[in-house]
Amino acid sequence: MEKLPKSGIIALIVIVLLLIGLFKSAVTIDSGHAGVVHETLGEGVDPDKEALGPGFHIIAPWNRVIDYETRQQEMPEKMSVLSSNGLDIKLDASVLYEPDAANLGKLHNQKGTEYKSRVLQPAIRSAARSVVGRYTPEQLYSSKRDAIQDEILEETKKIVEPQFIQINDILIRDVTLPSTIKEAIERKLKQEQESLEYEFRLVTAAKEAQKVIIEAEGKAESNRILSASLTDKILQDKGIDATMKLAESPNSKVIVIGSGDSGLPIILGNQ
Fold first, then answer.
1. What is the CATH number of domain 73-182?
2. What's the distance, Cα to Cα, between the start and end of the chain in Å?
3. What InterPro entries does its record include (predicted)?
4. Where do the H-state alpha helices sit in 142-252?
5. How far apart are CA 112 and CA 41, in angstroms?
6. Rounded CA separation 251/248 (Å)
7. Confidence class for position 226, pLDDT limits 50, 70, 90
8. Where are the beta strands (DSSP E) in 7-146?
9. Alpha-carbon distance 25 to 251, whole Å?
10. Cα separation, 58 vs 22, whole angstroms
11. Domain range summary for the chain, segments of one domain joined by +
12. Which of 216, 124, 125, 202 is nearest to 167 (CA)?
């Protein structure tokens, strides 16, 4: 077997090294991710340098890329906090967040890839303790939940946004109170509901009674006006009209004997 010349061996080694260097230099960033470049021969990550976006990139083979997901992510969090009267309240929440893509270099240098546990979790817990401590268990359980959720969001933003983390929303999925407190609140809410229903019935009944009174008063006034307008002459004319109609009926036999009051005939007998 013929040996390779020394120059050929050197060329082969150079080619292999170039291929290895090219392989280490080629970096692909996935969609929804970005990468910060750590310069091994320099000062690490340049905080002012723009991160690598999705796609194919070539870097120096002695450098490396630290990958960050830049899409919105969810962090479930279960917390135990105290209400304004010192009762233990358990919150089940979700935090929707993402790193500040424009400042990934600064985020990496200051907090690193573990920024979630170093910044986000302590911030949400601190904000929740601060906000929930202003409210009673009853407010947490019913009317104030949305307001509390918004306040926790704003408190968390104040802590994390200066540290290059973007908070999109905080969702409180469940509030767990001590069983005795929960039962007492539910009884009170039920009683309040029954009281409101009773008040509604009273108001409805009062309106119906007022309606009957108004109708009766209207009818009485109508009768008074009618009575005042009926003179003896009008009554006599109406009596004559009624007598004439009765006399014309084929089913009646009319006998007129003398006259009744007001000069009207007396009607006897019919079939």
1. 3.30.479.30
2. 149
3. Band_7 (IPR001107), Band_7/SPFH_dom_sf (IPR036013), Prohibitin (IPR000163)
4. 145-160, 179-229, 232-247
5. 20
6. 9
7. low
8. 26-29, 33-39, 44-45, 55-58, 64-69, 73-82, 88-99
9. 122
10. 8
11. 6-69, 73-182, 198-229, 236-268
12. 124
